[in-house]
Amino acid sequence: MKTKKMVSRITALVLTACVVLTGCSFGKSEQTSTDTYEIVWYNEGDNTKDKDLVNKEINEYLKEKIGATVKIIHFSAADYAEKTKLLLASGEVFDMCSVAANSYGQNAENGAYLPIDRLLETHGKDILELMPEEMWNAVKYKGEIYGVPTIKDWGTQYVIGCNKQLTDKYNIDLSNIKSLADMESILADIKEKEPTVYPTDIRGNDYVKRLLPFEYISDSVLGAFEKDGDYTKVVNWIETDTAKEFFDMMHRWYEKGYLRPDADTATTSNDITFFMNCTEMIPYQEQQYNAARTADKQRYFVNVGDSIVTTNYVQSALQAISRTSKNPEKTMEFLNMLYTDKYLLNLYVYGIEGKHYTLENEGTTVKYPEGVMNFTENDYYATAAAQGNRYLLNIPPNTPTDIWDAYKKFNEESFISPALGFVFDISELSAEIAAMNNVYKEYMPALTTGVSDPETELPKAIKKFKAAGSDKVFKELQRQYDEWKKINKN
After folding, report:
1. Are the beta carbons of 416 and 313 closer than 8 angstroms?
2. What is the Cα–Cα distance from 111 to 115, expressed in whole angstroms?
3. pLDDT digits (tens, 9 = 90+) for 74-98
4. How far apart are CA 266 and CA 189, in angstroms?
5. Is the overall model pTM greater than 0.85, yes or no?
6. How distant, in Å, are the alpha carbons of 79, 119, 291, 425 from that of 479?
7. Alpha-carbon distances, residue 407 vs 253, 300, 372, 411, 421 (angstroms)
8. Roughly how many angstroms between the first and final C-alpha of the chain, as a whole number?
9. What is the DSSP pairing of strand 299-303 with strand 158-163?
């Protein structure tokens, strides 16, 4: 990968525990008094036993601090994008929400979110001071800010995960693995020696295409930049030689039985035992992952690319204020606290100290109750993935105490994409984008998992994409990017 401009001024570090809070149904604000505003906050997460107990504790604290309470409503990760889409389309009155992946620009264009530049200056000054300018550039849409990034790991690095137990059992050397293709002979050995184990957990909804050397452009369906290129030309990634080689390899792997028979339609790996998967990694994630799992589930993580800061990744962890909010000022005050108030953020993420966790290592590191192996087994856990300043959080269990230094180094060594901050405006292309998305759902899961033969199905897919309007979309995408580059010379 070509050397890009290195990330600067990124001093906030991040916690790796991707924990999640929970949810129920849509709910309207219920004011407890004329002096106490109830902030309705939709976030991604799972149900936990003590959710209401912790929410009550948070509200007692907020009433004292800012004269407000918060009603936290959560949807599961699997449902969040669709449910928030319906929520925003219905005009539901609420105050704040985490932004579903790949929906930020479109929702900003549609007026779902409030532009918050002035609100940050009046009620979110601490966030303005903490956030590097690069991150604000990454979330501006038509010159305005509609979402607040999480202070976290801003680089992203995709990796291959290999079953630790089987890797050790067969003395598999992973030191020379530099790409997905390098795994082929290893998968063949696993297939022969472990007939009850699927060599891979590659599925139609999986990370696998992210291991390819492309930076994908949100909302464009097929638009991408070649990471090794000069970032002047937008490419249709499925028409590249790299993509064809990938589709051919996946089909070969599928025919050899390295993937499960229903790889194109499967959405989870909970029902199978597998050797390899594709995921993303930040410092100490392998150590944390393995400490929270039994020996048969532990993995080695193998880097197959440099970490890079992209628009997509920054925009995948935002909080936005709803256009329907009855009190955006008070909502911003609460949001500002998530970036500055150590007690509040730890209460939200870990729960009540003494009940859901204790602290060790001189009060710096979280310890779960006896018998709780990882956060998902606790009576309470919440997400640190999409809100606040993770640097305020206590250190997760089984994590070295120098994690913040490791994260600082990771951020400083991540490269800023030359396209950081570019957002594709699809407001005049909604029909074409919708049609392309339908073609994508029809063809791409089967192509990326090898279920389809790319010799026959890839040309059909390309032809259908063109019929859906892909040429028009790419022409406009390139035009917008060229205009953006004139103003933003990264």
Report:
1. no
2. 9
3. 998 888 989 999 999 999 999 999 9
4. 24
5. no
6. 34, 32, 49, 11
7. 36, 20, 26, 6, 22
8. 17
9. antiparallel
